[in-house]
Write a structure and sequence with these properties.
The complex is a heterodimer of chains A (249) and B (422).
Chain A lengths: L3 E6 L8 H9 L10 E4 L9 E3 L2 E3 L2 E4 L8 H5 L5 E3 L5 E3 L9 H5 L6 E2 L4 H11 L20 E2 L5 E3 L8 E2 L5 H4 L6 H5 L5 E5 L6 H6 L4 E2 L11 E4 L17
Parallel strand pairs in A: 1-14
Antiparallel strand pairs in A: 1-12, 2-5, 3-4, 6-7, 8-11, 9-10, 13-14
Chain B lengths: L1 H28 L14 H25 L9 H17 L13 H4 L6 H31 L1 E3 L3 E3 L6 H38 L12 H25 L6 H32 L2 H13 L1 H20 L4 H20 L3 H5 L4 E5 L4 E5 L2 E2 L14 E2 L8 H24 L7
Antiparallel strand pairs in B: 1-2, 3-4, 5-6
Helix pairs in contact in B: 1-13, 2-3, 2-6, 2-7, 2-11, 3-5, 3-13, 5-6, 6-7, 7-8, 7-11, 8-9, 8-10, 8-11, 9-10, 10-11
The chains are: A alpha+beta (249), B mainly alpha (422).
The structure holds iron/sulfur cluster (2 copies).
């Protein structure tokens, strides 16, 4: 059984938010909902350095769902709608979730998103806010993104382009692609090539090679959630690029 | 009296109707009609749930104390007390319905309960509690029901049985025995509903405002403060202020006052430890109370202390009792409401930003979950502080639930033979 994880190299992240946009488009996220965030650490505005001149820094921190090995959300969900699959991916069953939002209280990373209304209504509002009088999706059924429902092996719906109201959703590591052997959209869409996705159990996978012998950190490691998203801390940049993975990558 | 009763019922009915309509609207549009959003995912409904659980305790504590602690003075109001227990525990479950995005799927709670979550346990103890309090009320009223019957509207008297005085005495004795058996079950259950409700919150490591061991004790103390106050109010509604109930009320007022002091003691104990560190998430949560929600904090403390004063000063006067009970209810409600904002607005994902002079914790903003602003007036979609005030729909629905509880209570005391206090 593979155990999927991700490593994000903060040296390579240029803060472009491509991952967030690609995620949004591929996963058909309604306006206002973001599974993937990228912010500038310590700053109230993205892309504005924090600190006072000359003591400034600008570090971009992308945060997807951590797919915690010891996931508080899985523990908290009263009906088992959120669960961890054998391959380590934490998923939400759109048909079982009762919308109690206890998992949102439990998740320390703030990645869980609730469908406060039907996604159709959100799209309508989105177009209006963007200045379009007309509703662009004339076809009520149309949504951008991966067009099919995706079910796990045991028949649970974990992705649907038409989001029902009143359920919780979050980053799935693009389960619809991973199940086909493809990489998550954010990994493919990252313009700085900062992300590596793969099997933590396989010693020969790219991710295992990167993690081996390297100093990585996890977010809120002291909470004991055991995230499977790892970060490579940014080092002082000298010249172009900075970090070098060596030949094999 | 009759006229007043009708008027009260009409008002309660109207509020309940508005609440029902508001809930219908919320079901149709989704929880977007509330002011909760992703960074602030629980609000007034959950505060009300904690409040109702608290008020529900008083009832069975009072009626079981009669048998467990031989508190004979409480006997005359036992029936009303156990009815309030039943009604408020039902209220606690009802108020969660509008909080849930998909109430029609609640059956999953029975089909696929996840017992590592505290919510199914809370569901179990709350249902057990309302069941036991219903049975308890019936046991306490059994003989009176046989003697006087139940006055149903349109149908008339039912369940009245022709039994001789001797038989009645025998049945009364038997009921007494049942009640004695139920008391040792009822009291632990009353304690358990608070403990489990507190655990739902206190187990959440990501919410330092709740996390820890003091939440359950404060819940129990707060319940013993509001419970008796609610019983005082309820029995005043049911019987009016009766001279012969003086001792009963005085005892209840004393219990409530002492419990209030204990509650504040535990509460400030926790504050002290948080304050001493002057750093860390626990301290930040406390700081948020004083910097962002000072009014709520002042309300809770002032009203609770006022109630303590009134209960100690005028335990035998109608006005003092009513004012004290109302003020403790307001105080504890503010206390319950304050459970929510510092828990959510202290965003758990904080990243330390280290400069050579100091380290500041920076909160990672959360996507709000709705379209905000417009093309020319954009508003941030990611928020690290959500200003929450309940929306009109939330207030209407909550008021509706309170009204329904009031309606059920008024109906029950009118229909059932609780009136003639022994
Ligand atoms: S990051 Fe949050 S949603 Fe994702 S697995 Fe961990 S607790 Fe659950
Ligand atoms: S909102 Fe849905 S996924 Fe989250 S805890 Fe409730 S039932 Fe589980």
């Amino acid at each position: 059984m593979p155990k999927f994880g991700m490593v994000i190299d903060l040296n390579r992240c240029i803060g472009c938010r491509s991952c967030a946009v690609v995620c949004k488009i591929h996963n058909s996220l309604p306006p206002g909902t973001w599974w993937q965030r990228v912010e500038t650490v310590g700053s109230t505005e993205h892309m504005v350095p924090s600190g006072e001149n000359p003591d400034v820094s600008e570090t971009f921190l992308p945060v997807p769902c951590m797919h915690c090995e010891n996931a508080p959300c899985v523990k908290a969900c009263p009906v088992g709608a959120t669960w961890q699959r054998e391959d380590g991916i934490v998923l939400v069953d759109y048909e079982r979730c009762i919308g109690c939002r206890y998992c949102m209280t439990a998740c320390p990373y703030g990645v869980r998103q609730f469908n406060w209304q039907d996604s159709r209504a959100s799209f309508k509002e989105g177009f209006k806010a963007a200045g379009f009088e007309e509703d662009w999706f004339k076809d009520k059924e149309y949504r951008y993104g991966y067009p099919f429902d995706h079910k796990t092996g045991d028949g649970r719906i974990v992705y649907t382009p038409k989001r029902p109201k009143g359920v919780v959703e979050k980053c799935t590591f693009c389960v619809q692609y991973v199940d086909k052997g493809l990489l998550p959209a954010c990994v493919r869409g990252c313009s700085g090539n900062a992300r590596t996705f793969g099997d933590l159990n396989d010693p020969d996978s790219d991710i295992s090679k990167i993690l081996r012998g390297r100093n990585v950190f996890k977010l809120l490691a002291d909470l004991g959630t055991e995230p499977k998203v790892f970060y490579i801390a940014p080092t002082r940049k000298e010249g172009k690029g900075g970090i070098n993975y060596g030949k094999e990558l | 009296m009759e006229k007043n009763y009708k008027k009260i019922m009409m008002i309660l009915g109207a509020v309940a109707l508005i609440g029902a309509l508001a809930w219908g609207y919320q079901l149709y549009r989704g929880l977007i009609v509330t002011n909760m959003r992703n960074p602030f995912s629980w609000g007034l409904y959950v505060a009300m749930w904690a409040f109702f659980v608290g008020t529900a305790a008083g009832g069975l504590v009072v009626s079981s104390a009669i048998y467990l602690f031989k508190a004979k003075q409480l006997k005359p109001i036992a029936k009303v007390a156990s009815l309030t227990a039943f009604i408020f525990s039902m209220g606690a479950m009802i108020i969660l319905l509008p909080d849930i995005g998909r109430p029609e799927r609640l059956y999953h709670m029975i089909l696929h309960p996840n017992f590592s979550s505290m919510l199914p346990w809370d569901f179990i103890v709350l249902s057990a509690y309302s069941l036991v309090s219903a049975v308890y009320s019936y046991v306490l009223m059994r003989t009176d029901i046989m003697e006087k019957g139940v006055k149903l509207p349109f149908i008339g008297l039912v369940m009245k049985k022709d039994v001789s005085g001797e038989q009645l005495a025998a049945i009364r004795e038997q009921s007494e025995k049942y009640a004695k058996c139920l008391a040792p079950v009822a009291l632990p259950l009353a304690i358990l509903i608070h403990t489990v409700t507190a655990w739902v919150l206190a187990t959440q490591l990501s919410r330092p405002w709740w996390y820890g061991g003091v939440l359950a004790p404060t819940f129990i103390a707060a319940a013993l403060a509001t419970g008796p106050a609610i019983v005082i109010l309820a029995s005043m509604v049911a019987f009016g202020y009766k001279e012969k109930l003086k001792d009963t009320y005085a005892l209840l007022a004393k219990v409530s006052a002492i419990a209030s002091i204990i509650m504040l003691f535990i509460y400030y104990n926790d504050f002290m430890v948080r304050y001493w560190w002057r750093t860390g998430k626990e301290f930040e949560a406390l700081k948020m109370v004083f910097t962002h929600y000072p009014l709520l904090h002042i309300t809770e403390v002032v009203f609770i202390l006022l109630a303590v004063y009134l209960f100690f000063k005028y335990p035998r006067e109608k006005k003092g009792l009513i004012q004290g009970s109302l003020s403790i209810t307001i105080g504890v409600f503010a206390h319950r409401f304050l459970l929510i904002p510092p828990a959510y607005n202290l965003i758990p994902l904080r990243v330390p930003v280290i400069t050579h002079r100091e380290t500041v914790e920076w909160a990672y903003p959360i996507a709000v979950g709705e379209v905000r602003g417009s093309l020319l007036n954009p508003e941030p979609v990611f928020s690290s502080f959500w200003k929450y005030t309940p929306s009109l729909a939330e207030v209407a629905i909550t008021a509706g639930v309170v009204a329904v509880i009031g309606l059920i209570f008024m109906c029950l005391i009118n229909v059932l033979p609780v009136k003639e206090a022994e």
